[in-house]
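Q: What structure does this chain adopt?
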Amino acid sequence: MHRYVLAVLLALLTSGCIQRTELRTVQPPPPEPPLSDEAARALYHDILERGNTVIQGPVVGYRRGADELYEFRPAALCQEPACTEDFSLEEIELEILGMRRGIHLGHESTRQDDYRIQVYGGWMQDSFFAIQSNDYLDPENHGLTVVLGYAVGFSPGTSPDLGGAMTAMWNGFMRGVDLNDWPDRGDVISGDAAIMVELDGIGMTADVSFTNVLSRLVVRRPDMTWRGLAVEDGLFQYGAEVGDTLTGQFFGAGHGEVGGVFERDRIVGVFGGIRD
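A:
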């Protein structure tokens, strides 16, 4: 089909029926450069200074080679400025990993006498989200790994304004840790995240979908979806079943960001996204 269209265009040009114009290739905009270490730390501290919301996933632990899982604390939600006081990048080695779907990626690491911390997360302008693993090295807890996820930021405490539209989308990514049986236990899981908000005659609801979910060894995992979650004061939750939970919150004065934590199929993780 394209061959015939080009042939007709060439005939028109050579016959003088239409005016020749210069054809130029439109180049896509260059990718946004990664944050510098200084800029990333400044953004992190700015989010903490303005932050008033912390969503924490369940704190779960396991020992290397053992079957048991330990839940040290269930998921929790804190909504006041003091909630962010326990977060810091001091004495933390920070590696900037670039961007994914408009979100800055980072890896934090540090080692103390008794434990080693690894954190993978994403920074936006009004919030960040991360999954953290603490590996304990002291004789009493040697071999114990504790996993926790969190989303932190400034939330206006209101639901998004959809304007004249009935739906809106936030796109980003998810990251989690597999707590299933060995050898999968401890594997890092990542994928794309999409949050669709819809306004109908009943109220506002959110659908959350994780797709292209892959393990660290690029083994595909099943997609995850939660549908019809009621959105109230910018917050949406699911917790009808033990081990299948999700909590999300819209961040930023214009609700331009979303972040949260989840647990499903013995995978605990976090997600975040930016409004289209």
